[in-house]
Specification:
binds magnesium ion, TATA-Binding Protein, 6-stranded mixed sheet, Alpha-D-Glucose-1,6-Bisphosphate, Chain A, domain 3
Length: 453
């Protein structure tokens, strides 16, 4: 990669505000760059955003111009497109989505031929082509063909249903409230629940890119209707997806929102208990995951932050589970990517076999974490991290991604953001108060280092 130029891909593809930093001109050039890098046959999908057609047509135009054949699968979750790419042995995929961002955003995300999210090396290659404009241009008689395929959603649903114990789920006659957040899961998750034989009630299940129900980040503030509905309707489980449905968060039968690290800990523990083995999570993950996995006889491996890194490490070590504490869980029984539909099905299987979600969460170790950040000036991060590194020499630490310090009553991770001029500070303590103390202490230390000349 050429130093000094603006990085195109963030942690989740290329994102921006529609018709400002994310324009059809940019999408066209991305299509040309992706087509030049991937060749062959490429599938494309979108979530439900209002700008989807505009951006998709531009990307498709670029792909066809390079000679790629394109399969348009319509509106489906990101993991459904990932499954389609792998199963059909295509050369790659593109998803037009800004995941959980507000409706004025959209983005372009590249999928590798094995169905995983493109790695930073693959993205770097696309960036090189993008900036050098070294686009492949097909001759008039070698321009790509566009096809449409409406099978991707049902293939995905059938595949998930074949990976879980449907008979056990059906037997329990569970009732679920599902919030589709007006996103891509409107076309898959209700049909998946039907196939799994649960009774369900949907919220925000009309696909609508203005997100009239609530913003698509599945936080407790945005999920008040779901939380209230679960208790009012006497349901066994509430579940919500983000806009592109690679993530699922849960509400227990009493109407409690379950933080993502706890649902990850529970699912990881149960997967390890079933088959033994290893879990893979980023270094920023609360230790409740490692402790839950250890209680089932498994071990946990830590990676750099970012789901493509986690997925690739899982493949390398044959892990049985992995993911992030935001509800993005990777279950290789289905595929090596965050998969909202599979996460929903896995949770139903766990509840069907082991009892209510609240009772299972209550058995997990406690978790006390605090996240905060320090805003920096542009370009300040590198120097500051160097100073911080000098200041912690001799302390027990892990430098997989940023600097994680192991302290008497917990740990602190100090990590520069990959996309913005800020340093993120994650702290865990043996009590809530201790976690907060550690976070405050390291905010102060970073600020003192900033002032030092
Ligand atoms: Mg997402």
């Amino acid at each position: 990669m050429v130093e000094g130029r603006k990085k195109l891909f963030g942690t989740n593809g290329v994102r921006g505000v529609v018709n400002e930093s994310m324009s059809p001109e940019l999408a066209l050039r991305l299509g040309l760059a992706i087509g030049t890098a991937m060749h062959g046959e490429i599938a494309i999908a979108t979530d439900t955003r209002t700008s989807n057609t505009m951006l998709k047509e531009a990307v498709v135009s670029g792909l066809l111009s390079t000679g790629c054949n394109v399969i348009d699968t319509g509106i489906i979750p990101t993991p459904a497109l990932q499954y389609f790419v792998r199963e059909r042995r295509l050369n790659g995929g593109v998803v037009i989505t800004a995941s959980h961002n507000p409706p004025e955003f959209n983005g372009v995300k590249a999928i590798a031929s094995d169905g995983t999210e493109a790695s930073s090396q693959e993205e770097g290659m696309i960036e090189d082509i993008f900036y050098s404009e070294n686009f492949k241009r097909a001759r008039w008689n070698e321009i790509g063909q566009l096809h449409f395929n409406e099978q991707a959603a049902s293939d995905y649903i059938d595949a998930i249903a074949s990976k879980v114990d449907v008979a056990s789920i059906k037997k329990r006659k569970l009732r679920v409230v599902l919030d589709c957040s007006n996103g891509a899961s409107c076309f898959t998750s209700p049909y998946l629940l039907e196939k799994l034989g649960v009774e369900f009630i949907t919220l925000n299940a009309q696909p609508q890119g203005s997100f009239p129900g609530h913003e698509s980040e599945p936080t407790p503030e945005h999920l008040q209707s779901l939380i209230k509905s679960v208790s009012a309707l006497d349901a066994d489980l509430g579940a919500a997806h983000d806009g592109d449905a690679d993530r699922t968060v849960f509400v227990d039968e009493k109407g409690n929102y379950i933080p993502g690290e706890l649902s990850l800990a529970l699912i990881a523990m149960e997967e390890v208990r079933k088959s033994g083995g290893t879990a893979v999570v980023p270094v920023s993950t609360p230790s409740v995951v490692e402790r839950a996995v250890a209680s089932a006889g498994g071990k946990t491996i830590y990676t750099r932050v970012g789901s493509p890194v986690v997925a690739r490490k899982m493949m390398e070590v044959h892990a049985v589970i992995g993911g992030e504490e935001n509800g993005g869980i990777i279950n290789p029984r289905m595929q090596y990517c965050r998969d909202g539909g599979m996460t929903l099905a896995t949770m139903l299987e766990i509840i069907a076999k082991n009892g209510s979600l609240s009772s299972l969460i209550a058995k997990l170790p406690e978790s006390h974490t605090v996240k905060t950040k320090v805003q920096l000036a542009e370009g300040e991060g590198h120097m500051l991290m160097e100073r911080f590194r000098q200041s912690v020499q001799g302390m027990k630490r892990d430098e997989t991604d940023g600097i994680k310090l192991f302290l008497d009553r917990g740990w602190v991770l100090v990590r520069p953001s990959g996309t913005e001029p800020l340093i993120r500070i994650f702290a865990e303590g043996d009590t809530e108060e201790q976690a907060r103390k550690y976070a405050e202490e390291y905010v102060r230390i970073i600020n003192e280092l900033r002032e030092k000349r």
